[in-house]
Amino acid sequence: MHISEGILSPEILLAGAAGTAIGISIGLRSLENKDIPKVALLTSAFFVASLIHVPIGPSSSHLVLNGLMGIILGWEAFPAIFVGLALQAVLFQFGGLTTLGINTFNMAAPAIISYYITRPFLRREGMGAVGLLACAAAGGGSIMLSALLVTLSLAMSGEGLEAIGRLIFVVHIPVAIIEALIAAFTVNFLLRLRPDIIIPEKTV
Amino acid sequence: MIRTPLTAANSLIQLTDTRIKLLSAAGFSTMVACTKTLEVAVVALATSLCMVILAGLPARQLFSRLITANLFILAIWCITPFTTPGHVVISTWIFKASKEGLVQALFITLRCNAILFVNLALLSTSNPFSLAYALLALRVPLKLVHLFFFSWRYLHVLNKEYERAQIMLKTRGFDPGTNLHTYKTYAYLVGILLIKGYDRANRVHKAMLCRGFNGTFRPFHRLHLGSKDSILGIIMFLLITMLAAMEWIPDLHR
Q1: pLDDT, tens digit, for every residue of B185-213?
Q2: Contact A86/B148, CB-based, under 8 Å?
Q3: Which of A8, A92, A98, A203 to probe by mutation at the B interface, max B CB count within 10 Å?
Q4: Residue A203 included in any domain
Q5: Which domain holds residue A64?
Q6: Is A5 contained in some domain?
Q7: H/E/C letters for each residue in B33-97?
Q8: CB within 8 Å: B202 and A57
Q9: Does the pLDDT at position B16 exceed 70?
Q10: B99: which of A29, B48, B91, B209 lies 20 to 30 Å off by Cα?
Q11: Searching chain A, which residue's CA lies closest to the CA of residue B105?
């Protein structure tokens, strides 16, 4: 779900970079030194998980999981997604330095919203049907919101690019349905098995 | 799957200081992303192609990267010329391609490939460790560099876990399809990966504390700039300045 190099206009690239810089600085401020290995290893886990290809009808898609990252990491999802995309750029040459800002913003902003809409429902003893629905809404909604941001970035960069943006949006509707299911099942699984990952214990 | 085959090249560019490469790549990419002049885009593509050749990267990996990146470009060629309003140059049946749309697609192709080439030549030839040190030297926040470094360091470990889980699913006859069972299984797989990562992180953190980790990052090799590094840096600086002059000083490129 990221936009290649050389497509967007400089203004959009700059706006994306600025938004990402703000997001990362908020994320890093709340990140304590002792939590760095935890966030880093969760980032690599999400990176590997996003290599999973799930079948959708006759086609398949890889997981994005930005909603789930938001639910688990909160504001730290901003630096985490940034690092994930930077790793993609260095390892696979997907995207490069100039699109890192806008691509991070398009994926991380919905992740932060996911965090706020699911937090009230997550309890160590479980989350109930409403919590399950909130997680599904966060997982699926993040994909749709990211696709919308991608479409807007393209549309604002050139008149002719709007059509391709719309196509990208439509293609992501089935992906969103699957991400909704994955987010809800994963959070439910973790809450039952390892609630400390979702709700960290208060340490002195 | 997660390897860095391109760092194996043993060329002049490969051995250049990573800070110089990182700054050059950033400057060059930014310049190319901003250009609206055809000459600048063509010169940028030509010079970045020279850099890839100088970097001596293995041809097969190079081609596979080029093809992946250009698939999206192909989609743009198929759609953009017909959706951009303007002077119609090609008209078949109901589809009318405008000159403006074709020009835009051409620009995107040139810019995208020039940036890809420069990334391949300058960034993919650096190993993760020197990249982390270079980021620190360039005053990127310490916490962010730590995140980057640890994520990279443990990517292989978690990828191994993923491969093991795949074998486990296969031995139990898991047959993925479009059904709830498949998505539930994959969700639990994501959950397992997160648990493995989390537990590993706790052990890594404890091990670091045992070894007296105090939050600083100590380079194993001192970075130092040699004359070769400075020469490459100066060449890149002159190149970027030249492109900028061609772009923004009127009448220079005509």
Answers
A1: 999 999 999 999 999 999 999 999 998 88
A2: yes
A3: A98
A4: no
A5: 10-198
A6: no
A7: HHCCCHHHHHHHHHHHHHHHHHHCCCHHHHHHHHHHHHHHHHHHHHHHHHHCCCCEEEEECCEEE
A8: no
A9: yes
A10: B48
A11: A7
